[in-house]
Design goal:
- By secondary structure, the protein is mainly α.
- It has helices at 7-19, 21-38, 46-62.
- The protein has one domain (7-62).
- It has three helices and no strands.
Length: 63
Amino acid sequence: MYNELPANEQQEVEQALQHDADLAATCADLLLAQRTLDTLRRKPSQSSTEAILQYSRTFLRSA
């Protein structure tokens, strides 16, 4: 998925994918999920950040 295997292990995985349709389908699903997740926002919205900060301020006032 992330091309992190050593070359010999990568070849073994590629061969397994060619000979096992279920494994290939699962790998395809995982690759699609990876691409989808990579496009998601990686930081909270400004309104979420403000809500968290506002909530945390309630603890500072009560101390």
